[in-house]
Amino acid sequence: MDLTRFHEAQRYAYQSALTEIRNGKKCSCWMWYIFPQIAGLGRSSTAQYYAIANLEEAIAYRNDDILGGRLIEISKALLELESDDAYVIFGSPDNMKLKSSMTLFALADPDQEVFQKVLDKFFHGERDRKTIQLVSKNGNIK
C-alpha cells in the first residue's frame, strides 16, 4: 500500500490540525488526509485523491506507525473535549466525514476502542451506513 500521499500532506498540517482539535474548533482544510474516508463518498478531486480504497488500505493506514499513531492521538483529543457536538467542532459536511472516517477505522481495527468511543460521544454510537455498505461491497468486512 502506498500511503505516501498521507505522509506528505500531514508533514506540515498535522500539528495545526491537532492544535485546532484541542482548541475545539477546526479552522483550516485538512479533513481528507487526517480523517480519511472510504472511496465512493467524496466527490471532489481532493476527496478522491485521499480516499481509502478498501479495508486493506485502512488497515495499512492504521498499522502505519506515524499515520496510525496520529489518528489515535487526534481521536483521543476529540474525546477530551467538553463538547459532544461534531457540528460545532467541524462544521458541515466535515462532521459527517468524521463519522464515516471513525466507522472505517472501527471496522479496520475493532480492537482499538478509540474509534468507537468517538462514534459513541459524537454520534450516539451510530456508524455511518454508507461507509459500511461500501466496505462490505468489496467483501472486506471481517
Quick structural summary:
The protein is mainly alpha-helical and 142 residues long. Helix content is 65%, strand content 0%.
Question: Can you walk through the features of this model?
Answer:
There is one protein chain. The protein has 142 residues and is mainly alpha-helical. It has a single domain, classed as Protein of unknown function DUF1810 (Serine Threonine Protein Phosphatase 5, Tetratricopeptide repeat). Helix content is 65%, strand content 0%. The protein is built from nine helices and no strands. Helix 1 packs parallel to helix 5, helix 5 packs parallel to helix 8 and helix 7 runs antiparallel to helix 8. InterPro entries: DUF1810, Rv1873-like_sf.
Could you outline the blueprint of secondary structure elements for this entry?
Blueprint: H1 4-22, H2 31-34, H3 45-49, H4 55-63, H5 65-80, H6 86-90, H7 94-108, H8 114-123, H9 129-137
Helix pairs in contact: 1-5, 4-7, 5-8, 7-8, 7-9
Protein name: DUF1810 domain-containing protein
Pfam families: DUF1810 (PF08837)
